[in-house]
Amino acid sequence: MKSPEFNSSRLNIRFLLSLITLATVILVMTACAHREIPATVAITVSPETLDCDDYELVEVIEVIDANTVLTSNGDIQLYGAFSLKQPSDCASQAEDRLRSLADDQIRVQPFPTDSVRRDDDHYYLFTEDGQSIDQKLIEEGLALTWDQDGQHFGWFLFKDAKAKE
């Protein structure tokens, strides 16, 4: 049986590469050790609510159901959220909450013109001081999110996911 030949040049190259790698790691670690790390890190916080206080203000005549408000402009339905009629106790809670949020006046934002919905009585609803009624109902588990389209549907899906946590 023939014994394997010892190749010292291969060993020397591997040893040299290992030394270069080790020296590089030590150099990098030393350079990073002297670097100053800031005591505080800036964190960007997204807003917690979808607010808008510059949309048209309309008078609320009555809340018809958990999805519909009769206003001085006619019947207006929620665009970003909707409540189911069953179970009836949940629909009743959603209607009561909509009534308390709508109060005497609401702000309305028209839905996008390229919507899959073809009726024009859907709006995003805001309280008189500009807080999203759709968002409140979703966050409180009283409404589902309309997830087909709309300029705020991503925001409402996010809030819906947070509420489910």
Structural features, described:
The protein is an alpha+beta fold. The chain has a domain at 56-164: OB fold (Dihydrolipoamide Acetyltransferase, E2P). Helix content is 36%, strand content 20%. The protein is built from four helices and seven strands; from the N terminus they run αββββαββαβα. It has helices at 8-33, 88-102, 133-139, 153-164, and strands at 56-63, 68-71, 74-78, 81-82, 105-110, 122-127, 144-145. The protein has a five-stranded mixed barrel with strand order 1-2-3-6-5. A two-stranded antiparallel sheet has the order 4-7. Helix 3 (133-139) runs parallel beside helix 4 (153-164). The chain is elongated and about 95 Å long. Residues 37-46 have low confidence and may be disordered.
Give, in spatial order, the strands making up the sheet with the most strands: 1-2-3-6-5
- The parts where pLDDT drops under 50 for at least 5 residues are 37-46
Question: What is the CATH architecture term of the domain at 56-164?
Answer: Beta Barrel
User: Ends: how far apart?
Assistant: 70 Å
Extended strand count: 7
- The gross shape turns out to be elongated
Structural class: alpha+beta
**What kind of oligomer do you see?**
single chain
The average pLDDT is 76
Helix content: 25-40%
The number of helical runs is 4
Task: List the defining traits of the structure above.
165 residues, OB fold (Dihydrolipoamide Acetyltransferase, E2P), alpha+beta
